[in-house]
Amino acid sequence: MKKIAKIRKIMLSVLCCGQIAACGCCAEICESDCPSILETAAYSTNSVELLILMYHSVKNGIESDYSVTPETLKCDFSYLRENGYTSVTPEELVQFVYDGKELAEKPVLITFDDGFYNNLAYALPLLEEYNFTAVVNIVGEFTEQIAPVDCHVPAYSYLTAEDCEVLLASGRVTLGNHTNEFHHRESRQGCAILPCEQESRYHALLWSDLTHLQDFLTSELSFAPIVFAYPYGFDCPESVPVLRDLGFLLTLTCYEFTNQIVQGDEDCLYGLGRYNRVGNMSTADFFHRISS
Ligand SMILES: [Zn+2]
Predict the structure, then answer these.
(1) HSE (side-chain half, CA atoms, 13 Å) at 240
(2) What SS3 class is residue 135?
(3) Which helix (H) or strand (E) holds 177?
(4) Could you tell me if 28 and 249 are in contact, meaning their C-beta atoms sit under 8 angstroms apart?
């Protein structure tokens, strides 16, 4: 099926470029700067499967749906290496989609949500040991307000701005925006729009919240994330224009599926699926579950 689709796309590219004035619907790719047939064919048919893993806390003790031990994380990383996976960064995914640059054959995006200090204490050394990279998705109020009060306790502390600076300086970790104050499920489900909420009001609220964290990270770390992770995975179509306007190029959900990343298709980087790495499961069982 894939091969048929590929051939069809090539044929469409050839047909389109041969009928410059005849086909209004193809105007975008029939402009005078239209790439050569071969370039168009390669650009429109190159795609890759992307596995995204979602971790949260990494700490010693009892594992849960949202925490794994350092030993489990090490087992996972060993599995990924032994099975030929290469960790990729959001920037590499963007370059693959937007610029047609090459990407590893079996890419995996490793993500950690909520910005726990133990991501620095326990995960970073393992990322270095296995030559992997990761995205740590920060909640603004956790990092800006809660972390400085009681920092550097691996069991529960959040990353401070200084900790985030260390992560960035490692070259192993990039940061994502996980909202500033929407990481709750009481008044609304994460940052999703409320039933009957006026869309313009929602846009203003979301814009203000996300901008606060972007501005904080820019002023403290000279870094503005291009990744956004929906708290609890509660996404909504009304959020998308705001996320795009703010410059987010990748958005992460909690829907569990493997992604198809397609060169030239910028939309494929929005609403990406991730597999939550529950802690109370062996590495073998977890990867068996997500591959079946
Ligand atoms: Zn979260």
Answers:
(1) 11
(2) strand
(3) strand 173-177
(4) no
**Cα of 196 to ligand 1 centre, how many Å?**
25
If 0-12 CB within 10 Å is exposed, 13-18 middle and 19+ buried, where does residue 5 land?
exposed
* 257 CA to centre of ligand 1 in angstroms: 18
Q: How many other β-carbons are positioned within 10 Å of the β-carbon of residue 264?
A: 18
Quote the CA–CA distance of 63 and 206 in Å, as a whole number.
33
For 143, half-sphere exposure in the C-beta direction (CA atoms, 13 angstrom radius) is 30
Cα of 54 from ligand 1 centre, angstroms: 10
CA of 158 to the centre of ligand 1 (A): 12
Q: How many residues does the chain have?
A: 292
pTM: 0.85
233-248, pLDDT tens digit by residue? Answer: 999 999 999 999 999 9
- Tell me how far the alpha carbon of residue 57 lies from the centroid of ligand 1, in angstroms: 10
Task: Locate all alpha helices (DSSP H) within the chain, ordered by sequence.
Answer: 2-18, 37-45, 70-82, 90-99, 118, 124-129, 140-141, 161-170, 199-221, 240-245, 283-291
- The predicted pLDDT at position 33 comes to 38
Nearest to 123 by CA among 93, 83, 166, 88: 166
Q: Which amino acid is at 201?
A: R
CA nearest neighbour of 56 among 168, 159, 180, 191: 159
The 10s digit of each residue's pLDDT in 143-197 is 999 999 999 999 999 999 999 999 999 999 999 999 999 999 999 999 999 999 9
Give 7 Cα–ligand 1 centroid separation in angstroms.
Answer: 42
Q: Which domains does the chain have, with CATH numbers?
A: 1-45 (no CATH), 47-291 (3.20.20.370)
Distance CA 91, CA 231 (A): 22
Residue 13 is classified by DSSP as: H
